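User: I'm putting together a teaching handout on how multi-component assemblies are represented. Below are the sequence lines for each component of a complex, exactly as they appear in our records. Could you produce the 3D structure of the whole assembly as C-alpha cells, so the students can see both representations side by side? Please keep the chain order the same as the input.
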Amino acid sequence: MKDYELFTKDTKAFIYGRQTAAAQRMLDFDFMCRKDEPSVVAMITPERGGFELFFWGTKEIRIPRITSITQAASRYPTADVMVNFASQRSAYDVTMEALNTDSIRTVIVIAEGVPERQERILAATAKEKGKWVIGPATVGGVKAGAFKIGNAAGTMQNIREAKLYRPGSVGFVSVSGGLSNEAYNVIARNTDGLNEGVAIGGDAFPCSTLLDHLLRYEKNPHIKMMVCLGELGGTAEYDIANAVKDGRLTKPLVMWVTGTCAKVLPGQVQFGHAGAKAEAAIETADAKNDALRKAGITVPSSFDDYHEKIEQTYAKLCDQGVITPAEDFMPPNIPMDYKQATAEGLVRKRTGFISTICDESGEVHNYCGVPIDEVIEKNYGIGGVIGLLWFKKDIPVYARQFMEMVLQIIADHGPAVSGAHNTIVAARAGKDLISSLVSGLLTIGPRFGGAVNGAAEHFLFGFRNKLISRDFVSQMKAKNVRIQGIGHRLHTVENPDKRVELMKNFAHAHFEKTDLLDYALSIEQVTSQKKNNLILNVDGCIGVLCVDLLRELKFTDTEIDEMIDAGLFNALFVLGRSIGFMGHYFDQSRLQTGLYRHPLDDILYDVPDRPEKVG
Amino acid sequence: MAQKGIREYDAKRLLAKAIPEISGNKLRFNDELVLVSPETDLAALPNEHPWLKDQRLVVKPDQLFGKRGKNNLLLINVDYDQAQAWITKQMNRQITVKQTSGETSGTLTHFLVEPFVPHDKEYYLAFTSEREADVIHFSTKGGVDIEEVWDSVVTIRVPVLADPAKVDIASHLPDIADKGGLSEFIKVLYRIYCDFHFAYLEFNPITFLGETIVPLDTVAKLDDTAAFQCAKKWGEIEFPKPFGGSNTKEEAYIASLDEKTGASLKLTMLNPNGRVWTLVAGGGASVIYADTVVDLGFGNELANYGEYSGNPTTELTYEYTKTVLDLMTRTPDPQGRPKYLLIGGGIANFTDVAKTFTGITRALEQYKSKLQENRVQIYVRRGGPNYKEGLENMRKLGERIEIPLEVYGPETHMTRIVSLALEEVSR
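Assistant: Of course. Below is the structure of the complete assembly, with chains in the same order as your input.
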C-alpha cells in the first residue's frame, strides 16, 4: 500500500469495543461498494470471546470476538486498522497498545475527553513509528468505495445520496465530524464526488492534523482537488497556508474556517469543541481566513458561497482535463433492518409468543393492565397480585385476604414432611438455594400437597352430579378411589384442626355462599362416622373454598375446570410452601450442617443372596 | 471541557501539596492560604487560620482575571483588620476591569488572602503546552508586563516524549546566583505541571527564599478531561465561570436542562432586539449559521446563538424552542418590521428529523398568536433520516398557524435560508 493511503478496498480492520451497530454499518457500506468480503475481521472485546452475528446483505455471518489486541493481531496479521471505541478512561492505553503492535498502522480514536497530554503523547508516538492516529473525539471518516470508519457518513441513505459507494476526485478534511455529512453532500452535488473524507476531531491537540491529511491527499494521484473546513482556535490553519506557500501543497484547495461569529459573542465563548476557542487575535476565524486567502487558497467570503467555490474549482479542473468525472453505477440495495421497517410500518410478522397477563414493554410495567405503582399504592397485596396474574381479575378485598390467609396457613408444616425433608437433605449436600428448593418442590404431587386440586375435583364431581353424600362415598368406594381432602393423621371430629376452623369461619363471615364447602361437610359427616379422623383436612378445605370463591367471582364452570386441569389450586400450595422450604434452606445454611447420611440401623437390608436367574 | 481556568487559591493549594511530595521534601511551599467567599465569616476566620493575625497580609480578588494591581484591586502589606475592612467593602461590588482583551464587568465575590512576603528578586516563570512540546519561559525581569521585556525571556522546549525528571534546565538559564537551586525549583514545578495535567501555569512574579518557592501571582489552567485520573491529586476543585459571565434567566434555564441530559442544549443571548433568531441543530452547524449572519453583515441583527444536538427528547426540544420563542415574541419590533426565525441544520447522521421536529412544531403551534403579532417569518433547512416527512410536517404547520414558512432540504445549500432571510431584512 502507498504511504499516502490509509484505507483501500482491501483494508481489513479490528473494532475495539462491542460496537455492533457501527460494525454492521461498516459491513453494509462494504456490501454497497460491491466488495467481496467485509472489512471488519474481528471485534476486540476484553470482557469475553466468542462471536457476533452480522448481516452481509441478507446473509448472516459470524465475526469473531477476540479478547486482546495481541491475539487479534496474530490471528489476522493483514489487518492494519483499528477503530477504537474504548472509553475516555482507557482510550489512551488501548491506542498505545495498538501503536506498539507491529501489524497495526492506523488507529481511529472515537472517545471524547481524552486528556490533552495523552493525546500529545499518542501523536508523538505515532509520528515516531510512522503510524497514524485519527482523533480522538471523532466520528472518523470514509474512503469512498473502499472503507468506512465506524459510524461515519450516517445512514445508508446518506451514503447512497452522497455517492460514497464509489470514489470521486475530492479529498476532504474537517475538524468537526458533525458536519461531515453536510460536506459530503455539498461535494456530491458540486463535483464528481468524494475520494476520501476525514474528521480530525475537535480537541485542541488532535493526533493527526488538517495538514497531515492534506499532505496525504496531495500525494494521492486519484485526488485532484481538496476541500477543507477549519475552526477558530489554535494555529493549525497557518501551517496549511505555509505549506501552500512553500509548495508542499499544490493541488487546488477550497477552505473555510468557521467561527467568524465569535466577534459578536460576549466574552470568550467556548463552542462545542475543546479546541474551538480563540485565545489570541491570530486564532480567530477572520485572521485565519485572511491568511489562507493571502496564501492563494480559495476562501469563500462566507460559508454561503463555499459550495459555489467548490463547484467553480471543480469545473475548471474538468475544463483543463485534469478531472475526468468518475463513472457511476447503481449500488446494490441494503436490506432495511427489521426494526426500522417495523417502525416505518413497512413489514409485519406473526408473533411466536403471547402474553395476556402482563406487559413490560411500556414505560411502567403492568400486571394485567394495572401499572405496578398502582398495585403498590392501592394495596393489592399478594392476594391481589395473584388475582391479577393467575385469574386475570381484579378480585375484591375479602378474596385477596382469603388467598393470603391460605398462603400463611400452608407456608410450612415442619421438617419431617417429604418436601421439607428433601430440601434439607439437598441443602446439607451443599446444594444452592434453587436446587434445594426445587428438590423439595418436586415431591409435591398426588400424595404430598397435591390434594388441593384433587379435593376440588372430587367434591365438584359429586356436587355437580347432585350425588347425595352417602351415594358419593359409596361410588368412590366402588371405584376404589380415596376421596382427596378427607382424613388427618392427628385431628378428629372431637379435636378439630384449627387451620380448617379458621378458613371455615372466614368463609362464613365473608362469602355469600359456601355451596361446595357445605357439600364437602356433608360428605365429612358420612366418612367421620366410619372413623373419627376422616374429616375435611386443610387441603380439602382450601380446594372447596377456592371453588366457592371462584363461583362467587362469576367464573364459569368451564373456567374453573380449566384451572383445576392446569393445577392452579396446587399452585397456592407450591407458592405458600416455598416460603417454608426456603426457610429450611436458610436454616441449614446458617447452621452449616454437614452432609446427611441416613442411619444404617434405620434401613432394613433384605437383599437376596443371589438374584434369580431369568431367561 | 479541556482547558479550564482555576482560582489562584486552588493553583497554590495544589502546589503546596505537590511540591514537598515531588521534591522528596527538599523544597517547601507556603500553604498559608485562605479563600474568602460571600459565605465566609470574616470575624471567625482567624480561629481557623491563626496566622492571619500574626502576619502582614496580601489580599486580592480571585476570579480568573488578571491585572489586579493596575485595576486597583490589590491590597499589600496590611494587618487582618485592614484586610477584613477592605474585603467587606469590595464584596459583592459591581466593577469593570481592564484586561488585555478589553473591559469586562462583573461582581466581586472571591478573595485570596495570603501572607505578605518581603523579597527583592522577582522572576517570571511560565509553562505552556504546544502540540509537540511543553514550553518553559523564564525571565529575571518578573513583576512587569512580560510582553514589554520579552527579549529577556529564555525559552526551553521539552519534547512531549521526554522524561520530565531528566529535563536539562540549568544550561538554558541566564547567569544568575544559585542557578543550580533555581533549575531544581523549575524542574519540580515542571514535573508537577505534567503530572497534574496543567494546561497552563504562569507565575509573574515568582521568588525563591531559601528552600521555599514563593509564587506572588499565579495563573493556572487544568485540563479538566483528566479529572478521572486526578481526583486524588486535585482534591475538590472548582472550575469557576469566566469573570463577568453572568447568565440571563433563560440562559441559566437552558444550561440547567443541558446539565440534566446527555443531549446538548446551548443558548447565548446577543441582542434581544435583534430580528434574526436561530434554532439550529448541531454544534458545528449552529456556528456556521451565526457566522453567516455576521459575514453577510447582519451581526447587529443576530439575536441569539444556540444549538440543540445529541438527540434530545421531544420534551427537551419543546422546552428549548419555547424558551427561544418566548424571548423572540416578548415585544414586536418598534417599527413593526417582521422577525425571522431560522430553523436550520445540516444533514443528520442518525437522528430522526421528523421526530426531533415534533417538539419544535408543538411549541410553534402554542405560540401561534404571538408569532403572528410579531410578524415572524420562518425558514427551515434540514436533512438526514426521515427529513422529507419532517419538512412536510413543518410546511403543513406553517399553513395551519398561518405563518409564512419556507422549507428546504439537502438539495439546498445549508446556509441558503440565512441569505433568504437577510434579503428580507434588508428590504
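A couple of points students might notice: The two ends of chain A are 80 Å apart (CA to CA). Chain A touches chain B through 60 residues (CB under 8 Å).
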